[in-house]
Design brief:
613 residues; alpha+beta; Pdz3 Domain; 5 domains; 6-stranded antiparallel β-sheet; 20 helices; disordered N terminus; binds adenosine-5'-triphosphate; Guanylate_kin-like_dom; cytoplasm; SH3 domain; coiled coil
Amino acid sequence: MIQSDKGADPPDKKDMKLSTATNPQNGLSQILRLVLQELSLFYGRDVNGVCLLYDLLHSPWLQALLKIYDCLQEFKEKKLVPATPHAQVLSYEVVELLRETPTSPEIQELRQMLQAPHFKALLSAHDTIAQKDFEPLLPPLPDNIPESEEAMRIVCLVKNQQPLGATIKRHEMTGDILVARIIHGGLAERSGLLYAGDKLVEVNGVSVEGLDPEQVIHILAMSRGTIMFKVVPVSDPPVNSQQMVYVRAMTEYWPQEDPDIPCMDAGLPFQKGDILQIVDQNDALWWQARKISDPATCAGLVPSNHLLKRKQREFWWSQPYQPHTCLKSTLYEETFESDKEEFVGYGQKFFIAGFRRSMRLCRRKSHLSPLHASVCCTGSCYSAVGAPYEEVVRYQRRPSDKYRLIVLMGPSGVGVNELRRQLIEFNPSHFQSAVPHTTRTKKSYEMNGREYHYVSKETFENLIYSHRMLEYGEYKGHLYGTSVDAVQTVLVEGKICVMDLEPQDIQGVRTHELKPYVIFIKPSNMRCMKQSRKNAKVITDYYVDMKFKDEDLQEMENLAQRMETQFGQFFDHVIVNDSLHDACAQLLSAIQKAQEEPQWVPATWISSDTESQ
Ligand SMILES: Nc1ncnc2c1ncn2[C@@H]1O[C@H](COP(=O)(O)OP(=O)(O)OP(=O)(O)O)[C@@H](O)[C@H]1O
């Protein structure tokens, strides 16, 4: 026990011995208080810098700092001495006092008690303990530490169900076992005790010298509870100062199928369209990433952009030649020269542009035309060697911004047009289609700019070559298509433009100007489709009122699968069109979210946005 030596000082000396901190004359806090008082006199006047100085000296952090300083000063100046002499003096003085005092039975009893062996033993025990120093006793440093000796670090980690979150490798030249990388969010990283580059010397007391990394991993795998590493720390631990980057996976990746991955168990599998948070790009070949859908888990290894591109290219070259990968339905292959009603929207409550019966058909048929191939295949078809990751950012449309273009996509007959029509009928002042262009001549009952924009073939082709056509096709010798300007006209009016597209046209609309939100309309399973499409009619240009056959439904399902496999990375939302009522409700809600809630969009859309402001 230690205590302050207050009792030893005469009362008049006590004040002097008080710390400068508690002495009201000398304490720093007191000095500061006086300065503040002085300053407060000038505070109201316009003296240069006084207010700033006053505020600074008055700041709570400075006050707190001074308090700590004062406390430390006070503590420093208190003479803390062991209690031993004190206790001895006390017992001696009491005994002396008792001797001098006239004896009485009570004092006699007290004297006996104080002189009793157990009381003496108690005082002696107290003094012995008071003399003890309870600070930990460190062993003396050996005098003969060789200069070449490397500093070691002992690291103990308690292994639970999760992996350690570190990978090891053997140094090519020295054969040392090194920590290759520390996985973000893993046990090793959270401990803050192991770094990439640390040299393993022992694991659980077993020397790793001469062992293969696999043997070391085996030791680790067999260990339960606490694992003790003896490591030679890396001289310069790597610092991850990189910014977090978010990317959309434009391809899929399965670590189990990749023989090149440095550690298969540490790999992160992902699918097209997954949003990944890249947490570490220090390694040129292997990045560390997390799925944003699963942020709590520790990161995993993914190939870097450069490496994945290389892998894609190698895979692409290893595939047999395919002339074109555009998707094409076999549902409609014949042509039927009839003059039947052209607009599906005809005969309804009001006319809706952009619902020409053959619009989707002509686009599908035209994808093999030389004109389309010359424009489309240069860049708009997603090629196998396209960027494997697309950097994305969170985008929240401001109320003053134009609405995002809504793109519906799906296999023939799934209900893309039906849903689009229902949406526009539900609120025609809010949702609208763009008026398409055509090279055919205007009919007597039509109006330029209502059913179509009627233009010459030359004008139409110029629009295509200048990339102002979002989609187009040839049908019965005439060109049909939707231009960027037609979509912009709807958006500028403050309405939501809803259009349908073939998947191969998707790249053309993905611009910062339109910021499209792509909704994939998917068929449900065959059993449900048979039920829900019992009374539905296939819309073709060669049969009227043809019912869906099983083959049609099967074809639809197959095509939907191919679309998802090939273009799934572009889909922002997927709706299964089983019950039309439910699908409409889901569509409305998805569109509302797209316009009002933050969404992941390509980073280039936003940076070009800022530039244009
Ligand atoms: N959920 C549904 N339940 C029942 N019938 C539906 C449903 N969705 C669409 N249909 C019907 O299926 C038929 C085909 O729909 P729609 O014309 O919209 O297909 P599409 O995807 O636009 O394909 P295409 O462009 O080839 O015509 C229409 O008769 C439509 O009313």
